Amino acid sequence: MRNLFTLLLLLKLSLGLGQSSLAREHLRVLTSDSLAGRGFTSNGQQKAADFIVEQLKSCNVQAGVEDAFRQELSYPVNTFPGTVQYSVVSSTTVKIYAIGKDFLFHSASAPMELEGEIKAISTEAEIDRKVKNQIFYIEKNVDNAKEVTELTQRFLFKNSAKGNLLIIQDSSKWSWFPSSESSENAVLYVKDKLPKHSKVSVINESKFISNFRSSNVVGKIKGQRSDSVIMLSAHYDHLGEQGNAVFKGANDNASGVVMLLALAKYFAENQPKFDTYFLFTTAEEIGLLGSYYFIENSPFDLRKINMLINLDMVGTGDEGIMVVNAKKQNQYFNLLKQLNKDRIFEIKARGEACNSDHCLFDRVGVPAVFIYTLGGKQAYHDIYDNGEDLSLEAFDDLHDLLIESLEKY
User: What is the tens place of the pLDDT at every residue in 279-329?
Assistant: First the structure.
């Protein structure tokens, strides 16, 4: 016979009282234009953190760090707050391209405004240090992909020439990541091939910030016992903007944030067995800096953590969920499988992977897993991860499964 908790959950779902409805409201806020992709311009991250704190307070969740919800930190980042344009000029027309769809600057690109003819180069090209304000061009394909990547790194970070532009024609899927460095050159990725002697015009008003200020958000619910701790984490930062292209990060990771908020609401109303912390990290996208800072400045002894569950990209689930570190945390993984009872399509196991905030906790000996959903919309680190058609297929079932597993673990 199913236990009372499971029966109540099934009744709740049958009455249409699942969490996904409220989750969609929260998703709309977190992916709204006003939050600017929760990045580094227009106070996007600050606004996201304010929203999370507001929601935690409304649920009567306590502050998690010395009577404060925020844990302040800073780090360097290259940003794109101004104009970003790319066009191809002919004798009769000017074709203007769309950022994010047709072109994208490498995140370490220097500010520049250039117009001129392209010069085709090979992957072995070495740019003379005296060359300035030149536009170079290469086409990337399956055969030369590795060499073009190496050329890009040389051009940006190991080249004494300044003020030059490298255009890389690349028709494959783009995934953009922020950079903590700024080059004195720029790299531009374009979808369309350029004929010889093409004349192009580019504007990039990027700005390097050496001391970008942000914060982790930490909430706490006092448990029936304080000798151990359960932690739930999700990063709230995303890529922000490049020019007028907004990387809204609906699945990555507004979905994880709204799941944490739903779990915080539940445990605020149903006292957990152990003290339970909700960690919303910043700076995951730029190198797990938020989780690193928390570990170095934890408000409690990390050895008290029984389990950390990191939620990142949980907005689909048509094909089930993946549990990273499942083989290392076999007891918890088996509990999830046992309790699932075919609610979630499939629960898959994956080994260790340093691909989200759980990683650094795992490295210091904290029992940790990372859960993400499978199937559905595949947009990732691009302008198409915007919340449209995000199914939330497994959201309610995962929410309930996590609660039941933590009450039994």
Answer: 999 999 999 999 999 999 999 999 999 999 999 999 999 999 999 999 999
Give me the pLDDT at residue 252, please.
98
pTM (global) more than 0.90: yes
Evaluated on CA atoms 355, 360, 363, 366, the torsion sign reads negative
Rg (CA), the chain: 23
Digit-coded pLDDT (tens) for 32-66: 999 999 999 999 999 999 999 999 999 999 999 99
- Which amino acid is residue 373, in one-letter code? T
- Give φ, ψ of 36 to 5 degrees: 50, 40
**C-alpha distances in angstroms, 198 versus 74, 95, 101, 103, 193?**
42, 12, 20, 16, 10
In angstroms, the CA 214 to CA 61 distance is 21
Specify the length of the chain in residues: 409
Domains and CATH numbers, the chain: 4-76+210-408 (3.40.630.10), 83-205 (3.50.30.30)
